[in-house]
Write a structure and sequence with these properties.
- By secondary structure, the chain is α/β, with parallel strands linked by helices.
- It has one domain: Spore Coat Polysaccharide Biosynthesis Protein SpsA, Chain A (Alpha-Beta Complex), CATH 3.90.550.
- About 35% of the residues lie in helices and about 20% in strands.
- It has a 3-stranded parallel sheet with strand order 1-2-3. It has a 3-stranded mixed sheet with strand order 5-10-6, sandwiched between helices.
- Helix 2 links the parallel strand 2 and strand 3.
- The longest helix is centred in the C-terminal third of the chain and has 16 residues.
Protein backbone atom coordinates (compact mmCIF):
# COMPACT_ATOMS: atom_id res chain seq x y z
CA UNK A 1 0.00 0.00 0.00
CA UNK A 2 1.44 3.36 -1.06
CA UNK A 3 -0.14 6.64 0.06
CA UNK A 4 1.37 9.90 -1.30
CA UNK A 5 0.61 12.88 0.94
CA UNK A 6 1.18 16.60 1.34
CA UNK A 7 -0.38 18.53 4.24
CA UNK A 8 -3.09 15.95 4.91
CA UNK A 9 -3.23 15.87 8.72
CA UNK A 10 -7.05 16.04 8.73
CA UNK A 11 -7.94 13.57 6.01
CA UNK A 12 -5.09 11.07 6.23
CA UNK A 13 -6.11 9.38 9.53
CA UNK A 14 -9.48 8.41 8.01
CA UNK A 15 -7.74 6.79 5.06
CA UNK A 16 -5.20 4.94 7.19
CA UNK A 17 -7.92 3.79 9.58
CA UNK A 18 -9.79 2.23 6.65
CA UNK A 19 -6.59 0.36 5.73
CA UNK A 20 -6.13 -0.80 9.32
CA UNK A 21 -9.68 -2.20 9.25
CA UNK A 22 -9.18 -4.32 6.13
CA UNK A 23 -10.11 -8.01 6.39
CA UNK A 24 -6.84 -8.79 4.55
CA UNK A 25 -3.92 -7.96 6.84
CA UNK A 26 -0.79 -9.20 5.05
CA UNK A 27 0.45 -5.94 3.52
CA UNK A 28 3.07 -3.24 4.07
CA UNK A 29 2.04 0.40 4.28
CA UNK A 30 4.29 3.15 2.92
CA UNK A 31 3.37 6.81 3.32
CA UNK A 32 5.33 9.08 0.98
CA UNK A 33 5.27 12.63 2.32
CA UNK A 34 6.27 15.60 0.17
CA UNK A 35 7.66 17.47 3.21
CA UNK A 36 4.39 18.65 4.73
CA UNK A 37 4.29 21.72 6.92
CA UNK A 38 1.52 20.39 9.17
CA UNK A 39 1.28 17.24 11.35
CA UNK A 40 0.92 14.80 8.44
CA UNK A 41 4.14 12.90 9.24
CA UNK A 42 3.17 12.63 12.90
CA UNK A 43 -0.25 11.23 11.98
CA UNK A 44 1.20 8.77 9.47
CA UNK A 45 3.77 7.52 12.00
CA UNK A 46 0.93 6.31 14.23
CA UNK A 47 0.00 3.76 11.56
CA UNK A 48 3.28 2.71 9.97
CA UNK A 49 7.02 2.80 10.50
CA UNK A 50 7.56 3.43 6.81
CA UNK A 51 7.08 7.18 6.40
CA UNK A 52 9.38 8.72 3.79
CA UNK A 53 9.58 12.51 3.70
CA UNK A 54 11.40 14.13 0.81
CA UNK A 55 10.51 16.76 -1.80
CA UNK A 56 8.57 15.83 -4.93
CA UNK A 57 7.00 17.84 -7.72
CA UNK A 58 4.08 15.66 -8.81
CA UNK A 59 1.91 12.71 -7.71
CA UNK A 60 3.78 10.44 -10.13
CA UNK A 61 7.18 11.36 -8.72
CA UNK A 62 5.93 10.82 -5.15
CA UNK A 63 4.65 7.33 -5.99
CA UNK A 64 7.82 6.42 -7.87
CA UNK A 65 9.91 7.52 -4.89
CA UNK A 66 7.92 5.20 -2.64
CA UNK A 67 8.56 2.24 -4.94
CA UNK A 68 12.23 2.34 -3.95
CA UNK A 69 11.21 1.26 -0.45
CA UNK A 70 9.04 -1.69 -1.53
CA UNK A 71 10.29 -5.20 -0.75
CA UNK A 72 11.61 -7.33 -3.61
CA UNK A 73 9.01 -10.04 -2.93
CA UNK A 74 6.09 -7.64 -3.45
CA UNK A 75 3.82 -8.81 -6.28
CA UNK A 76 1.01 -6.23 -6.04
CA UNK A 77 1.17 -2.46 -5.57
CA UNK A 78 -1.90 -0.55 -4.40
CA UNK A 79 -1.69 3.22 -4.76
CA UNK A 80 -4.22 5.08 -2.58
CA UNK A 81 -4.84 8.81 -2.25
CA UNK A 82 -4.91 10.42 1.18
CA UNK A 83 -8.61 11.29 1.01
CA UNK A 84 -9.97 7.85 0.15
CA UNK A 85 -11.62 5.07 2.17
CA UNK A 86 -11.61 1.43 1.09
CA UNK A 87 -14.48 -0.94 1.82
CA UNK A 88 -13.33 -3.42 4.52
CA UNK A 89 -13.01 -6.31 2.04
CA UNK A 90 -11.40 -4.29 -0.77
CA UNK A 91 -7.85 -5.62 -0.33
CA UNK A 92 -9.08 -9.17 0.06
CA UNK A 93 -10.93 -8.93 -3.26
CA UNK A 94 -7.94 -7.26 -4.93
CA UNK A 95 -5.63 -10.11 -3.93
CA UNK A 96 -8.16 -12.69 -5.15
CA UNK A 97 -8.50 -10.89 -8.48
CA UNK A 98 -4.75 -10.89 -9.13
CA UNK A 99 -4.44 -14.57 -8.18
CA UNK A 100 -7.39 -15.62 -10.32
CA UNK A 101 -7.28 -13.31 -13.36
CA UNK A 102 -3.69 -11.96 -13.53
CA UNK A 103 -4.55 -8.45 -14.81
CA UNK A 104 -2.03 -5.66 -15.23
CA UNK A 105 -4.21 -3.47 -12.99
CA UNK A 106 -7.67 -3.39 -11.43
CA UNK A 107 -10.33 -0.73 -11.84
CA UNK A 108 -12.48 -0.58 -8.68
CA UNK A 109 -15.91 0.98 -8.34
CA UNK A 110 -15.33 4.55 -7.16
CA UNK A 111 -18.10 6.13 -5.09
CA UNK A 112 -18.29 9.58 -3.44
CA UNK A 113 -17.36 9.56 0.25
CA UNK A 114 -19.83 10.83 2.82
CA UNK A 115 -18.06 13.53 4.83
CA UNK A 116 -18.13 17.03 6.28
CA UNK A 117 -15.55 19.55 5.07
CA UNK A 118 -14.85 23.00 6.50
CA UNK A 119 -14.21 25.62 3.84
CA UNK A 120 -14.17 29.40 4.20
CA UNK A 121 -15.44 29.03 7.77
CA UNK A 122 -18.45 26.93 6.78
CA UNK A 123 -19.06 23.24 7.42
CA UNK A 124 -20.30 21.58 4.23
CA UNK A 125 -21.72 18.10 3.81
CA UNK A 126 -20.36 16.12 0.88
CA UNK A 127 -21.03 14.81 -1.64
CA UNK A 128 -23.33 17.37 -3.18
CA UNK A 129 -26.15 15.88 -5.30
CA UNK A 130 -24.56 17.14 -8.54
CA UNK A 131 -21.44 15.04 -7.94
CA UNK A 132 -23.14 11.63 -7.96
CA UNK A 133 -23.96 11.45 -11.71
CA UNK A 134 -20.30 12.11 -12.51
CA UNK A 135 -19.22 9.04 -10.55
CA UNK A 136 -21.87 6.89 -12.24
CA UNK A 137 -20.75 8.14 -15.65
CA UNK A 138 -17.07 7.49 -14.88
CA UNK A 139 -17.74 3.92 -13.78
CA UNK A 140 -19.74 3.09 -16.92
CA UNK A 141 -17.19 4.83 -19.16
CA UNK A 142 -14.29 2.91 -17.62
CA UNK A 143 -16.17 -0.38 -17.83
CA UNK A 144 -17.55 -0.24 -21.36
CA UNK A 145 -15.53 2.34 -23.32
CA UNK A 146 -12.02 3.01 -22.00
CA UNK A 147 -10.38 0.92 -19.27
CA UNK A 148 -8.23 3.25 -17.18
CA UNK A 149 -7.54 3.49 -13.47
CA UNK A 150 -7.51 6.35 -11.00
CA UNK A 151 -4.80 7.28 -8.53
CA UNK A 152 -7.55 7.45 -5.90
CA UNK A 153 -7.04 3.69 -5.67
CA UNK A 154 -5.02 1.89 -8.32
CA UNK A 155 -3.99 -1.76 -7.71
CA UNK A 156 -1.18 -2.72 -10.11
CA UNK A 157 0.88 -5.81 -10.87
CA UNK A 158 4.29 -4.88 -9.41
CA UNK A 159 6.42 -6.61 -12.06
CA UNK A 160 4.52 -5.02 -14.94
CA UNK A 161 4.60 -1.61 -13.24
CA UNK A 162 8.39 -1.75 -13.00
CA UNK A 163 8.70 -3.09 -16.55
CA UNK A 164 6.83 -0.14 -18.06
CA UNK A 165 8.85 2.36 -16.01
CA UNK A 166 6.32 3.55 -13.45
CA UNK A 167 4.47 6.86 -13.50
CA UNK A 168 5.44 9.71 -15.79
CA UNK A 169 6.72 12.28 -13.35
CA UNK A 170 6.25 15.27 -15.64
CA UNK A 171 2.46 14.98 -15.60
CA UNK A 172 0.54 16.93 -12.99
CA UNK A 173 -2.82 15.48 -14.07
CA UNK A 174 -3.73 12.28 -15.97
CA UNK A 175 -0.59 10.44 -14.86
CA UNK A 176 -2.83 7.55 -13.78
CA UNK A 177 -4.58 7.38 -17.17
CA UNK A 178 -1.29 7.54 -19.08
CA UNK A 179 0.08 4.70 -16.94
CA UNK A 180 -3.09 2.68 -17.54
CA UNK A 181 -2.55 2.79 -21.30
CA UNK A 182 1.01 1.50 -20.98
CA UNK A 183 -0.04 -1.24 -18.55
CA UNK A 184 -2.78 -2.40 -20.93
CA UNK A 185 -0.18 -3.11 -23.60
CA UNK A 186 1.35 -5.70 -21.26
CA UNK A 187 -1.83 -7.39 -19.99
CA UNK A 188 -5.56 -6.75 -19.76
CA UNK A 189 -7.18 -4.54 -17.14
CA UNK A 190 -9.92 -5.90 -14.87
CA UNK A 191 -13.01 -3.91 -13.88
CA UNK A 192 -14.33 -5.22 -10.56
CA UNK A 193 -17.36 -3.42 -9.11
CA UNK A 194 -17.05 -5.53 -5.95
CA UNK A 195 -13.86 -3.65 -5.05
CA UNK A 196 -15.45 -0.51 -3.62
CA UNK A 197 -13.56 2.73 -3.00
CA UNK A 198 -15.02 5.86 -1.44
CA UNK A 199 -13.27 8.98 -2.74
CA UNK A 200 -13.57 12.49 -1.36
CA UNK A 201 -15.28 15.08 -3.56
CA UNK A 202 -13.61 17.98 -1.73
CA UNK A 203 -11.39 18.57 -4.77
CA UNK A 204 -14.44 20.04 -6.55
CA UNK A 205 -15.13 22.66 -3.88
CA UNK A 206 -12.52 25.19 -4.94
CA UNK A 207 -13.64 25.67 -8.54
CA UNK A 208 -16.98 23.87 -8.58
CA UNK A 209 -17.53 20.62 -10.42
CA UNK A 210 -18.05 22.21 -13.86
CA UNK A 211 -14.87 24.30 -13.81
CA UNK A 212 -13.00 21.46 -12.12
CA UNK A 213 -13.95 19.02 -14.87
CA UNK A 214 -13.13 21.57 -17.58
CA UNK A 215 -9.66 22.01 -16.07
CA UNK A 216 -9.25 18.24 -16.03
CA UNK A 217 -10.16 17.95 -19.71
CA UNK A 218 -7.77 20.78 -20.61
CA UNK A 219 -4.92 18.95 -18.86
CA UNK A 220 -5.90 15.72 -20.60
CA UNK A 221 -5.80 17.41 -24.02
CA UNK A 222 -2.39 18.90 -23.17
CA UNK A 223 -1.11 15.42 -22.32
CA UNK A 224 -2.44 13.91 -25.57
CA UNK A 225 -0.87 16.75 -27.58
CA UNK A 226 2.44 16.31 -25.80
CA UNK A 227 2.27 19.79 -24.25
CA UNK A 228 3.96 20.53 -20.94
CA UNK A 229 1.56 20.72 -18.01
CA UNK A 230 2.27 23.48 -15.45
CA UNK A 231 4.21 22.09 -12.51
CA UNK A 232 5.13 23.68 -9.20
CA UNK A 233 7.64 22.49 -6.65
CA UNK A 234 5.97 20.63 -3.79
CA UNK A 235 2.59 20.94 -5.49
CA UNK A 236 -0.39 19.81 -3.42
CA UNK A 237 -2.40 17.47 -5.64
CA UNK A 238 -4.98 16.88 -2.90
CA UNK A 239 -7.14 19.99 -3.31
CA UNK A 240 -9.15 21.09 -0.34
Amino acid sequence: MIVPVLNEETSLPLTLESLRNQTYKDFDLIVKDGQSSDRTVEMASRYTGKVISEPDSSPGEARNQAIKHVGKDCSVLVFVDADVDLAPDALERIVEDFERHHPSFIIPKYLPRQEYVRTRGNLIQLPRPAYRPWYVFQHLFRKYIDNYGSGECMPVDAAIFKRVGGFREGLRVCEDIELSYRLRREAKALVDADVVVYASTRRYLREGIIRGLLSYFVYRIMWHLGLRQPLRAAVSWQDS
